[in-house]
């Protein structure tokens, strides 16, 4: 009898859960998990995580000292909340969790490095070794430079919002641990740009982009791992079977689990040797030139940073409102 697609995928690819929802992670038992501000915001609003949110907020208030504004307390609480969810996730999964640096720092190398070190220090204080944490940073030139510094310190990075080959090559040359090329967001852009409703999975522009990056890395022996992300349908996932890792939302994990059929391997290092691929070396000028020439990559990177920034601002507002309610409760209980 045929196995379900998820079981077969696990035999050739590391399956990662793309969620902040602890219950979903317990259900699908992925190797690793990734979070981002949007996912943390969604989880923070679920009743079952209210206690985590409240404890984090009250501790942040205590540590901020007298005179701190609700906004300042909320900002500190967000930094800690991402780690609080990360710690809960690490109790369930055997592998690594990805925790994101504030998207508003995406063009600031120094501030990104500082924030990443703070995140790692929080995990260390909770008894978690740095091998189990990936620091998530946007794939801007400045972000890649920050990640290069961090990798030399033994802090592993996951470069996210990656849409173009130029970003992928710059990451590989900087010795980054892992990259997350965004499949679904690339498809979204092409659908909007061409007016097409859909693409067959094998011609999906996001699938083609990740395939190109995977083949480039394997051809030239780069150690950086490729983790396809941001999927819109299971066709995109099955076309990338064999990729180093794939990070998948709980709803699509459920769909893969419910689907019986054969899953052939599509990406394979053994098939890359004979491919004709030109090696490109990336400096800042080349990166900027390729980025400008790639309308999709420049649109989606800017839009992604803007989206994560908005999610952060929403979360900080949510936390500030929650703090006001908690304080009001304390006053009435006395």
Can you walk through the features of this model?
With 334 residues, the chain is of the alpha/beta class. It has one domain (5-329): Aldolase class I (TIM Barrel), CATH 3.20.20.70. The protein has 14 helices and eight strands. The chain has helices at 5-10, 22-28, 37-44, 50-64, 70-90, 109-125, 141-152, 165-173, 183-194, 205-219, 234-238, 250-258, 284-293, 295-333, and strands at 14-18, 32-34, 97-100, 133-138, 157-162, 178-181, 225-228, 245-248. It has an eight-stranded parallel β-barrel with strand order 1-2-3-4-5-6-7-8, surrounded by eight helices. Strand 4 (133-138), helix 7 and strand 5 (157-162) form a beta-alpha-beta unit. Helix 4 (50-64) packs across helix 5. The chain is globular. The termini are far apart. The mean pLDDT is 95.
CATH architecture label name: Alpha-Beta Barrel
Number of helices: 14
The domain count comes to 1
**First-to-last CA distance:** 64 Å
pLDDT < 50 runs, ≥5 residues: none
Task: Report the major sheet.
Answer: 8 strands, parallel, barrel
Provide mean pLDDT, rounded: 95
What CATH calls the topology is: TIM Barrel
Please give the CATH class: Alpha Beta
Residues in β-strands, percent: 5-15%
Measured as a percent range, the helix fraction is 55-70%
Name the helix and strand elements from N-terminus to C-terminus, one letter apiece: HEHEHHHEHEHEHEHHEHEHHH
Number of strands: 8
Coarse shape: globular
Class inferred from helices and paired strands: alpha/beta
Radius of gyration: 20 Å
Strand order of the largest sheet: 1-2-3-4-5-6-7-8
- Going by CATH, the homologous superfamily would be Aldolase class I
């Amino acid at each position: 009898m045929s196995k379900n697609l998820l079981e077969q995928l696990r035999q050739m690819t590391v399956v990662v859960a793309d969620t902040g929802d602890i219950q979903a992670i317990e259900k699908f038992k992925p190797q690793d998990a990734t979070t981002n501000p949007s996912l943390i915001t969604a989880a923070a609003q679920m009743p079952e995580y209210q206690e985590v949110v409240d404890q984090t907020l009250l501790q942040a208030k205590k540590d901020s000292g007298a005179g701190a504004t609700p906004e300042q307390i909320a900002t500190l609480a967000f930094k800690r909340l991402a780690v609080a969810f990360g710690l809960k996730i690490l109790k369930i999964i055997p592998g690594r969790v990805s925790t994101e640096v504030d998207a508003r720092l995406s063009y600031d190398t120094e501030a990104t490095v500082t924030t990443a070190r703070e995140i790692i220090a929080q995990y260390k204080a909770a008894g978690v070794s740095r091998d189990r944490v990936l620091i998530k940073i946007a794939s801007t030139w400045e972000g890649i430079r920050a990640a290069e510094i961090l990798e030399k310190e033994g802090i592993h990075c996951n470069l996210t919002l990656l849409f173009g080959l130029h970003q992928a090559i710059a990451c590989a040359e900087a010795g980054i641990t892992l990259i997350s090329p965004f499949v679904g967001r690339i498809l979204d852009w092409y659908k909007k740009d061409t007016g097409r409703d859909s693409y067959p999975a094998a011609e999906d522009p996001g699938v083609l982009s990740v395939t190109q990056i995977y083949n480039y890395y394997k051809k030239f022996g780069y150690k950086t791992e490729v983790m396809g992300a941001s999927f819109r349908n299971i066709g995109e996932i099955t076309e990338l079977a064999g990729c180093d890792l794939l990070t998948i939302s709980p709803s699509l994990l459920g769909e893969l689990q419910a689907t019986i059929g054969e899953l052939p391997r599509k990406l394979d290092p053994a098939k890359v040797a004979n491919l004709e691929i030109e090696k490109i070396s990336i400096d800042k000028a080349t990166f900027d030139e390729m980025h400008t020439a790639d309308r999709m990559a420049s649109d989606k990177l800017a839009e992604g940073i803007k989206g994560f920034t908005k999610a952060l601002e929403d979360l900080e507002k949510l936390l500030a409102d929650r703090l006001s309610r908690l304080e009001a409760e304390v006053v009435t209980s006395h």
